[in-house]
């Protein structure tokens, strides 16, 4: 079951992102330049809104895969870093 969450939950630690991640970091550039909303259109036919368990956000999952490709991380390290 896929629900496109309209409400954005902001972490109280969101300001740390600006402090810890430099402006020229590759992940920050990717996040700025790539519009990941296309993912919802691509997978819409594979999910239903009213049947099954709630699915993990596909954009989040894609970003995790990107992080794993850019860095040689094990699954455990990826989860700790996410």
Task: Sum this structure up briefly.
With 82 residues, this protein is mainly α. The chain contains five helices and no strands. The longest helix has 13 residues, at 58-70.
Describe the fold and architecture.
By secondary structure, the protein is an all-alpha fold. The chain has one domain. It is built from five helices and no strands. It has helices at residues 14-20, 26-33, 38-43, 58-70, 75-81. The longest helix is centred in the last third of the chain and has 13 residues, at 58-70. The protein is globular and about 40 Å long. The model has no long low-confidence stretch (mean pLDDT 83).
Categorize the overall geometry.
Answer: globular
Report the total helices.
Answer: 5
- Note the run of SSEs as H and E: HHHHH
User: Uncertain regions: pLDDT < 50 for 5+ in a row?
Assistant: none
**Protein structure class:** mainly alpha
Please bin the fraction of helical residues: 40-55%
Protein name: Transposase domain
Organism: Trichococcus flocculiformis
Pfam families: DUF772
Layout of helices and strands, plus pairs?
Elements: H1 14-20, H2 26-33, H3 38-43, H4 58-70, H5 75-81
Key terms for this structure?
single chain; 82 residues; mainly alpha; globular; Transposase_InsH_N; Transposase domain
């Amino acid at each position: 079951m896929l629900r496109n969450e309209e409400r954005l939950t902001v972490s109280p630690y969101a300001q740390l992102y600006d402090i810890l991640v430099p402006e020229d970091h590759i992940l920050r550039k990717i996040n700025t330049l790539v519009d990941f909303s296309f993912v919802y259109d691509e997978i819409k036919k594979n999910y239903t809104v009213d049947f099954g368990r709630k699915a993990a956000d596909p954009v989040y999952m894609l970003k995790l895969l990107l992080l794993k490709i850019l860095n040689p991380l094990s699954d455990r390290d990826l989860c700790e870093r996410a």
